[in-house]
Amino acid sequence: MANKLQTWSPLTCISPAPLSPSGLITLESPDEVETLVRNNIELRCEGSSPLPRPSSIPPSSSWNAIHDQLTIHITTHRIVLIDESLSIGGSIPLPLVVSSTTVGGPSFRSPKASYKISLLTHAWGELLLVFRGYQNSYTKSQKDRAEAYNSIKRAMQRQAWRNVERSAIKEAFRPSTAIAARKVGVDAIMTRNELRHRENARLAESAFSSVAAAGDPVNSNKNAMMQSTQISGGKKGRVADIDAFMGEAAELIKVIHKYVATIERERTSTAGVGGEGGSDNNTKDTDKLASMLQNMGMTSALSAKQSGSTYHTQLSRQLVDFLKYNNKLSKCGGMMTLTDVYCLFNRARGSNMISPEDLLKAVDIMKELNLGLSKRTFDSGIVVIQEDAFDDESMARQLADLALDSMKLLHRGSGGGITAMDVSRSLKISVLLANEHLMCVEQMGWICRDVTLEGVRFFPNLFVSGDYSSVFRSDAADVTTAAE
Hints:
The chain has 4 domains: 2-159, PH-domain like (Roll), CATH 2.30.29.30; 174-295, no CATH class; 305-387, Orthogonal Bundle (Arc Repressor Mutant, subunit A), CATH 1.10.10; 392-483, Arc Repressor Mutant, subunit A, CATH 1.10.10. The protein has helices spanning 2-5, 10-13, 138-158, 163-172, 175-180, 185-212, 217-232, 242-248, 250-271, 277-295, 304-307, 311-324, 338-349, 356-364, 366-369, 392-410, 420-427, 431-444, 462-465, 475-483; strands at residues 7-8, 15-16, 34-45, 62-63, 66-75, 78-83, 88-93, 97-104, 115-121, 125-131, 335-337, 373-377, 383-387, 447-452, 455-460. The chain contains 20 helices and 15 strands. By secondary structure, it is of the alpha+beta class. The strands form 4 sheets. An 8-stranded antiparallel β-sheet has the order 2-7-6-5-3-10-9-8. The longest helix is centred in the middle third of the chain and has 28 residues, at 185-212. Strand 5 and strand 6 form a beta hairpin. Residues 217-222, 224-229, 231-241, 296-300 and 474-484 have low confidence and may be disordered.
């Protein structure tokens, strides 16, 4: 793509960022979490001289210090910028960022000045992130710049990229790992699981006790001091802010993340009971904990608040990646109902589920994004997601051959023909989709139906092919074949 442009820009000079089939960023490690997405961003190089030209770009190409119309993805490890029209991406690793400051904005002399973030890096000097907002809205630009700057600042303070080795060491020295290492077979698995359940229960109890005591300053400070002594060996201020506490107890966050689903179910059950004071308190505690997790970047899939106006666009790309992973949609015949997609996708997201309305909006824009999948509505009203390469004529030929093979049973005393259940077993799809395929192929004239008291069976349409040899065969040939 860079060769076609015959130019290079700051986006092509920073570290390349691999993208998923739908154009989303690919996380480098399980510990990396995406925290913010905003669009209509510019990347500028503030140096007087151009950045070193990448080897993939010809020497005759020109330098462009500004690359606009980008989408920014901020994670706990990187700042990723994507040009969706060209399907290229670049990343700025946060360990290479020396400092980040906010600059620009409207003033008396420049009332239309843009909002910017200046990044001083080790590898590329000073880079500017310019926020254009939506339709030149300065209010939106200011909000996007503030949210992006806060996300970058929190990520640089946490330094999550340094926790990988620390987590591996802690995992190796966990009591459950050490004890289970001395055992083998099923006994080792059962011992490891039992000890981990005990450790998780202890961590969860300490976490919820601190949340419950958050309303009492005295108890909150007392619990913070006790946890600071137990976790960080008496060092002061370790649990003063939540980011430092997260850095010292990474396994605690994993336990809290597992408990979110349980708390959500409790909130749902108490929401139906009106007039009880305990319900309001539980709801406040749940909201507080969910907000804390979101601020710490513990959601693996972006929410509407994190991705802003591009939420449904990002959700549509996530759906495509999910359905293309391991050829999930191809194994289902290249088509899947919205009900099946909704259930499978929400199950994969865990507690961060989406609503049916969000799914419909995400599916509606798949065609516009040219992601290889699109929505299709059958005459019966059933809505499915299918691959753009899905060929109705190929499916018709496949079902017609299946119906033709069934005529062999007709000469052996069986009824012949195929049903929706037969197609479902043969193509490994749901009976609902099998019936829709049969109806479409019938309308195309490849097969015809026979309705009896036993149900509906479909036969090859001999009036179109004009080949009646599969039906009218001599009984002597059948007898000879049976004798052989």
